[in-house]
Amino acid sequence: MASINPGRMTHQHEGELVVFHIGMTINRWWRPDAWLPVFGEMGPMLRELSMDPDSGLLGFTMLFGARGPYLVQYWSSLQKLYAYASAPAQAHRPAWTRFNKRARKAAGAVGIWHETYLVDRAESIFVATPPMGLPKATAIVPVGSRHDRAAARAADGRTTARPTVEPAQ
Question: In order of start, what are the domains of the chain with their CATH numbers?
Fold first, then answer.
């Protein structure tokens, strides 16, 4: 089990940041033959991306909603996300082809959705939690005294917390 970070933590990140939500909706629970294979496709993609440090995937969190599972993914660039989605030699394209074939056989039994956000600014705070979300995907740093409020963290823009450097004596 991951250790709990004491105190108030936030994330630190420079450069482009993309937040990508992707999920499936199980519309007919009595049709596991239609939705279970779709559910099984995500694991190989996540393993493939996680094993390639140049893939652009910074991290992810799997969640379960009332209609099915979904992922929140953090990417280093929109270009890398799109490159992965369209690469014929990687796991996504064949999985997408299989989904479309299955969807025609059991129309409406399972759905797929995604949302892509190019993040201009991000603010975060995590108090007494294990590493998760943006800090786990980027870098986790303590909340400094000048970043005590959400508005101050958000005002810094791309980097929500800058390490303080003590002047040399």
Answer: 5-11+126-155 (no CATH), 18-118 (3.30.70.100)
